[in-house]
Amino acid sequence: MGVSGSGKTAVGRQLSARTTWPFLDGDELHTPSSIEKMSAGIPLDDADRQPWLQAIRQRIESHERNGEPLIIACSALKAKYREFLLAGTRDTRLVHLVGDRELIARRLRARRGHFFDADLLGSQLETLEVPADALEVSVAGDLETVTRAVLAALGLQPDKISEEE
Questions:
Q1: Rounded CA gap, 84 and 89, in Å?
Q2: Sequence-ordered alpha helix ranges (H) in the chain
Q3: Which of 15, 52, 116, 134 could form a disulfide with 94 if both were Cys (CB 3.0 to 4.6 A apart)?
């Protein structure tokens, strides 16, 4: 979890490659109207986010029910979103990717082909309720460094994961 531009998708893909666990980019589950709003620089409200949160929740429930691992990237900026997503889960862990505003703004400006308007970063930072119960990982390093930090925070050894699962 984290604000847009914190590296959720890139780190999620790297984690998936290292663990062989499937990866889901939560952005793929936004409704067309929400994507349209964000593309136009309009922040989403709770009503916009509800179908998206429900879709993510369904994926979490399905994978937990089947005992299958899954890596999901989603912002989950408010405590009530995280509570909704994680209520009743047994094995789901939350990793909060954090970086300073300047670093994330620079990444957003450099990003191409994504619907999120970089001008919405301020809105996301204002909305963010920093989780007390998440594993916090800095995104100040390169992708390899951040990926290794997430694996370590989760207590996973990247070279042994496929053999153990």
A1: 10
A2: 8-19, 32-39, 46-65, 79-86, 101-110, 121-127, 143-153, 161-164
A3: 134
What residues pair up with 98 in beta bridges, in sequence order? 138
pTM confidence score: 0.84
Tokens 């109207």, located at residue: 33
Q: Provide the residue count of the chain.
A: 165
Q: Give the span between the Cα atoms of 115 and 127, in whole angstroms.
A: 19
The Cα 140–Cα 64 span in angstroms is 32
**In angstroms, how far apart are the furthest CA atoms of the chain?**
46
Q: What is the token pair recorded at 29?
A: 């589950």
Q: Take residue 71 and report the two structure tokens written for it.
A: 């890596």
Query: Does 33 or 42 have the greater pLDDT score?
Result: 33
Whether the predicted pLDDT of 153 surpasses 70:
yes
Provide the 3-class DSSP secondary structure of residue 102.
Answer: helix
Rounded CA gap, 47 and 42, in Å? 14
Q: Are 78 and 129 in contact (CB under 8 A)?
A: yes
Contact between 153 and 135 under an 8 Å Cβ cutoff? The reply is yes
